[in-house]
Amino acid sequence: MASLTLPRSGYALPGTSLHFKTGSWRVQKPLHHHRNAPCHAACPAGEDAQAYLAQMDEGHPEAAWKILAGVNPLPAVTGRVCHHPCETACNRSHYDEAVAIHHVERFLGDEAIRHGWRYPVSRPKRSAPQAAVVGAGPAGLSAAYHLIRLGYQAILFDQLPEAGGILRTALPAYRLPRDILDAEIERLLGTGVHFHPQHKLGRDMSLDELRADYAAVFLAPGNQQSREWSIDGAVQRDLHVGLDLLQEWVAVGTVPHIRSAAIVGGGNTAVDLSRILKRAGVTDVHVVTHQALPGVEAAHDAAMSAIPREITQAIEEGVIFHPYRGIRRLILRGEKVVGIELVHMKKLSRENGESRTVAFEGTETVLHVDQVIPAIGQEIDPAGMESLLRQQPFLTVDAWGQIAGQSNVFGGGDARQHSTGTVSGAIGDGRRAAIAIDNLFRAQDAPASGGETPLPFDRINLHYYERAPRQTAGALPVDARKGCEEIEQGLSANQVSQEARRCFSCGNCLACDNCWTLCPDEAVLKTQELARDGSHYIFDYDYCKGCGLCAQECPCGFIVMEEEL
Which stretches of 151-206 are DSSP H helices? Predict the structure, then answer.
């Protein structure tokens, strides 16, 4: 072992302290125990941010991107539009500020496009089994990509002439520039995906045909139909639906002439629509929602589902929000709206643990608008999937996307039950479904879901971390936000490196040498190779007395003490 490992000092002569193996005194022993970082556990796509931040900290951006792209093939997209729950979960937020993970993700995605870095994928063999993917939105693109990574042929169908789904049809360019979207999708399809545009399920192909022609089918059609809306059966004559208006703006850059509008809803569609109406010259734009504005005092399940930074920017641009409000009645002149009566709403808990939203009598107010636009969500188009839906508005799937009662049909994205309704969640659905299809082809059971809880904040030894401010990106000033120019700017390479250095490396070895240098018995040895993941540190249990100093002084909770058996 002496030629392979390095102690802190020279070797003793025979008959000295090495003769006395003090490990026999031990009642507990140190172990290396990898734990998921909270950011990893919180990411709907499954990204391990700690892993790629470590590569960035060492100055290896392409290696960092390959780790990221091994899970998420669209980081330049998600780095812009994701709600980044990873940052909400980040342990660093309890110390000073969360690491700006989404800015690092965006930087790596943009760098990959700029430098033409190749995805960590090999083209599948022509003899490889084929799987059909219906829907080229984020879930379908992710599933096709991961099927290619696993060695299968992915045949991707979509009813539109271009891939992208809702990313292309409903996200304004000021949030997601089209050149970025086009470049990332083109690169993804270039990994070997066979894309067939303008193929609609139920019109150009049937589910039975897909099941007969392909070994597995993944359905990710998204939600294309707006939900019906009225106030006690009353509907204005010239009703416009939120998603339709948003898609019209994205496609042609115009919306119908509106002087003042109230948008009903608390999601991203409602907020995006409010901002494009301001760009279209609508003087008064209001958003009416039962939910609260995001903030410290708003519980997670009570806050608007829209991304908080988008809400903040909408307020900066002149949108007026009416939280905890519902519409009691439409004020009509003939069949045309001239106003709405608002009422204060409150969510109350029932004895059985459920909650309901109720109106408070006597809190009514009138808001004068000439257009009410519902943006209350969409439903799945059942065409071609009637046998699977069974009159339900969603696909019922397990944790790996397998549709109930189907051996080789899977589903994900917005069309599935309990969907997150996010791009990152859809990407995660596609990845898990590809893994499940791989298990199907190999006749293996799906991996167990769940796992160990992520490393908590109290396991971080803060004595080894200095406070450092979070790097912030610039944004277009409010008076310049008139068209489709991207509002949020990215971080520079130097800023990204500084953010990577702020990572606590929760539950993962920092290669800091603390255990090696501080062990009073020199019972921690280190191999001559550079230690990166803890595997190059070795506990010499012949001499370890189990004092626990190494675990106490480990900055990132990677060493634990276990009772000696």
Answer: 166-169, 178-189
Pairs from 4-13 (Cβ < 8 Å, separation ≥ 24): 4/527, 4/528, 5/525, 5/526, 5/527, 5/528, 5/538, 6/525, 6/526, 6/527, 6/528, 7/522, 7/525, 8/516, 8/517, 8/519, 8/522, 9/522
Q: Which domains does the chain have, with CATH numbers?
A: 5-35+508-563 (3.30.70.20), 38-119+462-500 (1.10.1060.10), 130-224+380-441 (3.50.50.60), 231-376 (3.50.50.60)
Q: pLDDT tens-digit profile of 335-364?
A: 889 999 999 998 787 777 677 888 888 899
Cα angle value 139/140/146 (rounded, 5°): 90
Those residues whose C-beta lies under 8 Å from the C-beta of residue 351, and which sit 6 or more positions away, are none
pLDDT of 432 above 70: yes
Beta strands in 240-380 (DSSP E): 260-264, 284-288, 320-322, 325-333, 336-349, 355-359, 365-367, 372-374, 378-379
- Let me know if 211 is exposed, middle or buried by CB neighbors in 10 A (0-12, 13-18, 19+): middle
- Percent of the chain at pLDDT > 70 equals 95
Whether residue 296 is predicted with pLDDT greater than 70 in this model: the reply is no
pLDDT digits (tens, 9 = 90+) for 513-547: 999 999 998 899 988 777 667 788 999 999 999 99
332 with 374: CB under 8 angstroms? no
Q: What is the pTM of this model?
A: 0.92
* 231-247 average pLDDT score: 88
